[in-house]
Amino acid sequence: MKKRIILRFKKDTIDKPIVYRLVKDYNLVFNILRANISPKAESLMVMELEGTESNFKKGIKYLKDLGIDMEPMERDINRDEDKCVHCGVCTSVCAPEALYIKDRRSMNIEFDYKRCIACELCVRVCPVKAMSVSLE
Fold this sequence. Notes:
- The structure is a single chain.
- By secondary structure, the chain is of the alpha+beta class.
- The chain has 2 domains: 2-74, ACT domain (Alpha-Beta Plaits); 76-133, Alpha-Beta Plaits, CATH 3.30.70.20.
- The chain is 22% helix and 32% strand.
- The strands form 3 sheets. The chain has a 4-stranded antiparallel sheet, with helices on one face. A two-stranded antiparallel ribbon has the order 5-8.
- The chain starts with a strand and ends with a strand.
- The relative contact order is 0.19.
C-alpha cells in the first residue's frame, strides 16, 4: 500500500520523533515531499508512506493518537476546470510535471494528482486563479 498524505500538527507535537516511529515501529517506508516545520506555529508535512495495509493502518492510528490531522494529498491542490484557460504558465513551474501539456495541438493542460507534491507554485503563478489550495 502506498499513499501520499498531508500531516498538519500543532506545536506541542513538534518534538515527537514521528517519522522515526513510522519506520521503526510500523515498518513503513517514507518520502517527505514537502515540509514546513515551525516550533511556534502549526506545521505541515506532505509525505508518501508505503508498507503493508496492516502496518499502514497502525501507523495512521499512531498519528491520530498524537493529535495529528491528516488528509489525502489529492485534496490539497485543486484546479477549477471552468476557470482554466490552458495558458500553460503552471507547467513552467511544475518540477514533478504534475501539470503538463499532453497534446501540443490542443494545448490542453492535464493535472496528474499522483505526481503533485503540493509545492503550491502553480497556485502563485496562475493568472486566472484556476489553481487553489484547500487548507482544511
